[in-house]
Every structure is written in structure tokens, then in C-alpha cells.
């Protein structure tokens, strides 16, 4: 009897929490639609003070007439990040559903709808791992480059542009790579290969660690492409440890957090296909043994451009300095790498990074926003001639490398 009452009490508490979250979210929508001033946060999350200080700084910086910073009058990058942080606030303030991820269903859906392509990819990975020790360097390079391109085109699958509309990867991703090559505007795959190959040669002499970091983007199909590459790097000794960096709160609809990683591994392990279940088991083991390490520093869900990292998150910057290669996935990471500024298209990538050089790094991103540097003279004009929407279509990609400090 007592436990039945207790259960009813919990259900009631849950319903009240849902009502509260929904009302906070509709208030948020109204503020946005009517261009109200941005408000300080009222929750007590680890980053609340930083966000509120940021708002105050924006106010002091941009507002000589003491007007409030509002939704339509502030920088797009800041306001967009603020939107996702406010969605998080609405949940945090609605205990006991504070941990609820409002985007989880769409992320899971993307994985489920891409199952065929994921199976093809896991099959390919296992076949290439079987022959890794006998094949020569050129074949290994070829496989490495294929997996890089799959990671690149996997970035088309984000859900932030058209929320709720999953773009599943249905056909085998490997068959379409050749045809997509002309759409890679900056292609520094050779530089990545040379860097890792040199590291491997040194490591074979002196047993040094080779650390590769993945700054993750979207869950679902894209995450699988990243994990497949991470597995290949370990199996081929091109890396000895992998560090993944995900988001600690639901972010830009489809971005990866730890629950997405765990869910994915559970799904793979339970799959009927042995290609999938083998990947699930191996990846779980890598995580257990710390060959793969997952991090979720709060800096990744703050509005700062990355050149601010040494001041805002010196611990994270110092950690990234230990890496031999950092792979930044996706469009939002690129916007933050370049401070979301309208750089001239031919300004060198190194310069546009504005002093952010923790280690050699590479952006792997389909171009979805009007931020781009490091193109060859005349290249931007030529692409614009054939496709005026080239910067927002997501049809073009870059694998853009910077050698570091
Ligand atoms: O970083 P991702 O997942 O590649 O892309 C995220 C994105 O679609 O969301 C924003 C639009 O709302 C843009 O920054 C970007 O185009
Ligand atoms: Mn994303």
C-alpha cells in the first residue's frame, strides 16, 4: 500500500516536472520569437557563472547606449549556443527530469535508419584489420584515406539544420567516395598520413606513445565513422591511444554525449550481425582498458571561440598540447576554430586560427556556414559559379590541416 502511494507520488512529481519544463521551454520560444533581451541563467550548473559573466561582458562590450543584448541583435554563434544552454536550464530546473535529453530520440533514430550503411562500414573495418599486418604501406594509406573521407561525409548527418529530420546514410558509404572527391575543397589527407606514419616509425624504435584526439560532433552514423577510424588507427599502430571529447549537455540537437556512446555500444553488442556485435565488444574493451578515453569538458558547450581556450580552460588546452594530432569534426567546431569571422577565403588557415595551436590539428567538416579560410586563389569564385549555395549546402567538404605551433 505504501509503495503504491509512493509510486503514485513519483508519477505526480514526474508530471509536474514535465509541465514545468514545457512551460519554461514555451517561455524561451516566446523570448526568441519576440527578440527579448537575453536573460541571465538561474540554474546552478557548473558553468552558470561563466555564462552570466559572458552576458555581462557582451553587454559592456557591445552596448554603448545601454540597450539590452537581444536575440536578433547579438552574434549568431553566441545566441545559438545560448539557446541550447537555455534548453538545458529548462530541464535542470525541472527536477527529477533534469537529466532528460530532449534530442535523444532523434539521435537514436539516425542510428537506426543508417543500420545498413553502418553494417557495411563495420564489415569493411574488420576485413581491412584482418590483413593489416601483411599489406604494404600504400594499401594502408589507401584505407586510411577512405576512412577519412567517410568521416568527412558522415558529417552531413547533423540534425541541427532541420531538427527532427534525420538524414540517414542508407547506401554503402564506401561506394560513393570517388564521385565525391571533386567536392573536397581542401584535401590535406597526405599530410595527416605522413605525420602518423613518421610517428609510427619513431614509436617502433623507442616505444613512444602516439596520441590522437577526436573532438566529436554528431551521434548516430557520424559517430560510428569516427569510432571506425579510431579502431583502424589502433589496429594499424598509427596511434597507441585515442582521446574522445564529447559534450556534457544536449547540444545542437545531434551532438554526442556519453549516453549516446554507451547506447551505441549496447546496440552494437546486441546486434544480430557479427560485424556489428564484434565492433561493440572491441570498442567496449578499448574504453575499459583506457586505450580509448572519453572526456567531456564543459568548455565545449560554452560560447567561446577556441583561441580563448588558453585563458578560459587552461587545463583543457594543456591536455590537448599532449596530443600528436587533433581531429575537429563538423561545422560548429570549424566556426569556433575561426571565431565565426568572415575571413577572406584565401587567408591561410594557420592565420585564421588566431593563435590556437595546441598541437597539429585537422578540421574534417562539410561546409554548412559562411566561414571559410585557406582556399587557393580563385577557388572560391570558381565554386560559387557552379553552385551559389556552396557555403551552406553541405555538399562540399574540407580536410584542412595545420601543422601546429
Ligand atoms: O557542427 P555540425 O553538426 O556539423 O553542424 C551544426 C550546424 O548545422 O548547426 C548550426 C546551424 O544551426 C551550424 O553551426 C551548423 O551548420
Ligand atoms: Mn553537430
TrEMBL record:
Reactions performed catalytically: beta-D-fructose 6-phosphate = dihydroxyacetone + D-glyceraldehyde 3-phosphate; beta-D-fructose 1-phosphate + H2O = D-fructose + phosphate; L-glutamyl-[protein] + S-adenosyl-L-methionine = [protein]-L-glutamate 5-O-methyl ester + S-adenosyl-L-homocysteine
Pfam family, one: ARMT1-like_dom
Keywords: Hydrolase, Manganese, Metal-binding, Methyltransferase, Nickel, S-adenosyl-L-methionine, Transferase
Occurrences of domain Damage-control phosphatase ARMT1-like metal-binding (ranges): 15-383
UniProt entry tagged with the keyword Hydrolase: yes
EC number: 2.1.1.-, 3.1.3.-
Obligatory cofactor(s): Mn(2+); Ni(2+)
GO biological process: methylation
MF terms (GO), sorted A to Z: fructose 6-phosphate aldolase activity; fructose-1-phosphatase activity; metal ion binding; protein-glutamate O-methyltransferase activity
Family listed: Belongs to the damage-control phosphatase family. Sugar phosphate phosphatase III subfamily.
Protein task: Metal-dependent phosphatase that shows phosphatase activity against several substrates, including fructose-1-phosphate and fructose-6-phosphate. Its preference for fructose-1-phosphate, a strong glycating agent that causes DNA damage rather than a canonical yeast metabolite, suggests a damage-control function in hexose phosphate metabolism. Has also been shown to have O-methyltransferase activity that methylates glutamate residues of target proteins to form gamma-glutamyl methyl ester residues. Possibly methylates PCNA, suggesting it is involved in the DNA damage response.
Record remark: domains: Subfamily III proteins have a conserved RTxK motif about 40-50 residues from the C-terminus; the threonine may be replaced by serine or cysteine.
Official protein name in the record: Sugar phosphate phosphatase
Amino acid at each position: 500500500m505504501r509503495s503504491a502511494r509512493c509510486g503514485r507520488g513519483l508519477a505526480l512529481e514526474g508530471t509536474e516536472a514535465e509541465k514545468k519544463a514545457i512551460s519554461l521551454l514555451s517561455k524561451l520560444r516566446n523570448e526568441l520569437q519576440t527578440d527579448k533581451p537575453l536573460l541571465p541563467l538561474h540554474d546552478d550548473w557548473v558553468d552558470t557563472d561563466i555564462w552570466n559573466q559572458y552576458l555581462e561582458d557582451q553587454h559592456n562590450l557591445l552596448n554603448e547606449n545601454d540597450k539590452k543584448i537581444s536575440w536578433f541583435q547579438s552574434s549568431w554563434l553566441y545566441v545559438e549556443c545560448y539557446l541550447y544552454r537555455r534548453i538545458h536550464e529548462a530541464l535542470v530546473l525541472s527536477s527529477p527530469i533534469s537529466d532528460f535529453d530532449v534530442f535523444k530520440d532523434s539521435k537514436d533514430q539516425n542510428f537506426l535508419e543508417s543500420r545498413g550503411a553502418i553494417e557495411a562500414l563495420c564489415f569493411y573495418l574488420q576485413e581491412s584489420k584482418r590483413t593489416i599486418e601483411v599489406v604494404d604501406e600504400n594499401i594502408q594509406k589507401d584505407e586510411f584515406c577512405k576512412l577519412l573521407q567517410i568521416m568527412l561525409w558522415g558529417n552531413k548527418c547533423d540534425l541541427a539544420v532541420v531538427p527532427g529530420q534525420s538524414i540517414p546514410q542508407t547506401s554503402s558509404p564506401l561506394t560513393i567516395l570517388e564521385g565525391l572527391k571533386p567536392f573536397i575543397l581542401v584535401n590535406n589527407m597526405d599530410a595527416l598520413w605522413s605525420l602518423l606514419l613518421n610517428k609510427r616509425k619513431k614509436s617502433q624504435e623507442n616505444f613512444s606513445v602516439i596520441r590522437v584526439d577526436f573532438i566529436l560532433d554528431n551521434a548516430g552514423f557520424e559517430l560510428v565513422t569516427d569510432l571506425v577510424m579510431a579502431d583502424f588507427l589502433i589496429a594499424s599502430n598509427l596511434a597507441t591511444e585515442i582521446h574522445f571529447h564529447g559534450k556534457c549537455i544536449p547540444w545542437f540537437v545531434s551532438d554526442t554525449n556519453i549516453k549516446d556512446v554507451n547506447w551505441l555500444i549496447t546496440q552494437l553488442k546486441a546486434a544480430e550481425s557479427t560485424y556489428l556485435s564484434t565492433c561493440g565488444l572491441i570498442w567496449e574493451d578499448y574504453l575499459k582498458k583506457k586505450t580509448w578515453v572519453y572526456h567531456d569538458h564543459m568548455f565545449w558547450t560554452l560560447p567561446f571561440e577556441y583561441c580563448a581556450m588558453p585563458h578560459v580552460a587552461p587545463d583543457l588546452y594543456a591536455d590537448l598540447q599532449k596530443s600528436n594530432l587533433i581531429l575537429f569534426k563538423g561545422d560548429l567546431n570549424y566556426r569556433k576554430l575561426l571565431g565565426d569571422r568572415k575571413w577572406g577565403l584565401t587567408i591561410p588557415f594557420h592565420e585564421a586560427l588566431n593563435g590556437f595551436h595546441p598541437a597539429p590539428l585537422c578540421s574534417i567538416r562539410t561546409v554548412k556556414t559562411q566561414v571559410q579560410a585557406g582556399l587557393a586563389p580563385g577557388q572560391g569564385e570558381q565554386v560559387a559559379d557552379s553552385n551559389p549555395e556552396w557555403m551552406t549546402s553541405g555538399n562540399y567538404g574540407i580536410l584542412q590541416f595545420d601543422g601546429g605551433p
